[in-house]
Every structure is written in C-alpha cells, then in structure tokens.
Design brief:
With 472 residues, the chain is mainly β. Helix 2 (152-161) packs parallel to helix 3 and helix 3 crosses helix 4 (244-255). It has helices at 70-83, 152-161, 200-217, 244-255, 280-285; strands at residues 7-10, 28-33, 39-45, 48-51, 54-61, 91-98, 111-114, 128-129, 174-180, 189-192, 195-198, 221-228, 267-269, 289-292, 294-295, 297-301, 314-318, 324-327, 335-349, 353-363, 369-370, 374-380, 385-386, 388-391, 401-404, 407-409, 417-427, 429-430, 443-451, 457-458, 462-467. It folds into three domains: 7-36 and 384-467, no CATH class; 40-49 and 292-380, no CATH class; 53-287, Rossmann fold. A seven-stranded mixed sheet has the order 8-7-6-5-9-12-13. A five-stranded antiparallel sheet has the order 1-2-31-25-26, with no helix packed on it. A five-stranded antiparallel sheet has the order 16-20-19-15-21, with no helix packed on it.
Amino acid sequence: MIKKLLFTLVLSTLLTSCGEEILTQNTVGETFGAPDLETFQQNACSNMRFVKPPVDILFVVDNSGSTLKDSFKAIKGEIAKTVSTISNEFDYHVYIAPLNPNQGDNITNYPLVVSDPDTLSGPISNFNLVKLENINSSVFFAEAHGGNTEEGFDRVYNLINSNKNNKIFRKNANLVTVMISNYDDTTTLSTNNGMIDYDNTAFNNKKNRFINLKSSLNAKSFRFISLAPHRKCNGWDYHGGNSRYAKMSRDLYQNFGLSDDSQYNHARDLCSGNYSTLFQTVNNSIHHELVGHKYDHWKISSASASSIQEDDITVLRVKENGEKIEIPQSSSNGFEYLGYKSNINTRYAPDEGEPVTGLVIKLNGNARISYPDCVIAKTRTPTEYFGYVVLPREPQVGTIKIEINGETINSDNTNGWTYVGYQPSKNIKVPGPTNAPVTPEVLKSGYFIKLNGTSIIKSGDDINIYYKPMAI
C-alpha cells in the first residue's frame, strides 16, 4: 500500500461555482493525509521429515545333527546372502541364534548386526557385533546340538523376551522372526494312547503368547516367517501331515492383518530352494515413517519490533481441510507476542530445532502447531498520531475552515484547533491517546495549526483545510 503524501496544495481561486459555502473566491485548500496503515501477511506451514523405520530381525537356525549335511550347509549359505538384501533404508538389528543352545551359551551374546550401535542399551562390549560384510554361512552355527525334541516356538519367544532390556529387540519397532528348520516344533504335539498327535490347545497357547509379545513391545508389525519342509525332501520330514511352523506363519499373518505376502503368508517351503526373495516382501512393505514436527513458537514477520502494532496481531491456524481457526492472545491456550528474537527454536518435537530470527510469538497449550497445519499471521504498521498541520502560506485566521474525514472541526483549545503561527522546524507527530512513539520524527516548517484532544488525527485520516492567504 502506498503511503499518502503529507500535503497536497489544492488551488481554489475560482471555486464559487462549486456551491460549497466555505469555498469563496481567493480561498485555497490544503489536503493533509496521515500515512495509511500498511498490513502484512505471512503464510507458513509446519514441516515433517521421513525417518528410517526400526526393523528388528531374529534368525533362529536349526543346528541339529541333520543340518550338518551338505544340503543344509548350502541353505545356510543362501540365507547368509539374504541378510545383505535387508534394505539400507531400515534402522535394522539382525540377531542370529541357534535353534538348540549349547551348554553354557549366553542368550544375549549371539551374533548381532546393527546399522547404528547407538540404538543398543549398554556398553558395546556387551554385544557380539558382526559387520554386515562379514556375514557368511559360518555365522549360522556349524556345531550340532539337540535331540529328538524341537522347542522352536519357545526358543523364538525366549530369545526376544530375554533381549528386550538391552534393546536388541526394541519397543515400537517392526519385528521379524525367521525360523529355519528341517523338522518341526514338537512342543505342540501330545501323546494319547501311545499315539503322537497335534495338540491344538498347545499350539494356540504358543500363538497367543506371540500376540501378547507384540503388544508388550508395541511392535509396529510382527512377522513369523518360517522356512521349513512342507513335504518330504532331502531326508527331511515333519510329523502330523502339516507343518506347525507354516501354520504359525499363516495364522499370525492373518491375525495381524498383513497383506504383503499373499502368495505364501510368510510360510516358505524349505524344499523349494528359493530363498533369494526371502526379504523382498519385508523390504517392500515397511516404508519410511513420516514424522510431523510440532511447534511452540512461530515467526510472524521479518520486520523490526517498532515496525508493527503489537496489540493488533492476528494469528490463524489453517487445518489440512482448509478450515481457518483464529488463535486468541492468551498465556494458557493462545499466543504471546515476544517481540524480536534472534536464532530462537520454534520446534519442540520430535526434537528442538528450526531456529528463526524476527518477530516471534509463543504458542501455548492447545494453540501449539503440529504438522500438517499452516499459520497465517497478519500484522500492520503502528498507528501514528499527528497533532499539527502546516500551511505553506500565512492564513487569515478568521477564514480557516477544517474538515477531518469530512466532519467540520471548530476552533477550540480542548477538542478543536488553534492557530500557532510560523515555525522554522517542528515535529508534527504526537503521542496521541496510546502514547505512541513520536519517532522517527516528521519535521515540517511553515504556518502551524495545532489539533487538540479528539481532533488529533491518526494513520489513515484525511484533513481538508480551506483559508484565504494574507495579501502579499
């Protein structure tokens, strides 16, 4: 908005035909316009960022005597290769443990691959860290151990439950378990009249324990991927006609409402020999997490503190659907104007940041801003007051007529005008009713008329002055 000129000379020597009583021959007019208020609007939106999703993967690898055969050795080599296919876009932990522990094994000290050691709890020396590039089949245990029983479901549960406090398995992560066995779980079998048969109650108890484990970790997702025989091959077999590992994979897949592996439901046939795509569905289904930023401060202008009227600030929250909600000025659930600040943080979550320099407000309570909300901040120039108008010619005082915003103002020492006379230089700004600053000064010279009381003009007002000059 262009500010008004302070004075405009209006030549009116032949204005009798205008029909205005005050405009007579030889009357001149001066128009004084107090600078208009300028309004400013700043629009800005909250930010967000993508972060690597945390993914914790447990490998439980069969190490019974039959796994020492060349066929299973080849499988371990293939599985080792799949570890390197885990997406680098994950914040990953990969823990590799034998199905059957040897005597003296430390359940918290099996090989561990992590993308960031700082995500673990405790000294790094407490962990058996292995570099990703050093993963090979030897990491999957060459020493045979185990008998005729296979406590696969219990082993998976215990490995996770025992490694929660050290954060190998973290809360709020995506949890992936991979059971690799050339046999099957035996804890879900029972003997009746000398016959070994599948025990549905025992199986459901194991399944419910996994469901509760997901809940206790507040896991974003839980996958039980199994690599076990679905038929006879390589001398491998399973009891009961159906793989319990495969059933657990399918049941949990459906229970957790997963949809990323509709062909297999995370139940892979060890006899198929196709392991190269083991993590393809995991890599494709776990995506970057969008983290919205949260703000308790906001920049409303780059102007100086003296450039705006601080008691006339409007702040609007703009919701994602376009709805605009005015934020009141309040120390509890509104904004507080802080003035000009340098390098002050505006964001308080997920961490502090986004410093700004300029005019800043503090957002309190439910007025704080979160992604994806936007903010419209409206400010304006300060109200200025003017207590004098200046004529370029000496007037005949009795002929002076003054109109402010179209209303006639009479000569009066209280709420009208008084003639002062010639001044070589004087600031025409006055504090007015709000005690506004009189700087920067507006210095004028000429024949001064003083405005009194309610006749003092403010930003945006117009004055017309009509008078007859003294004869030259």
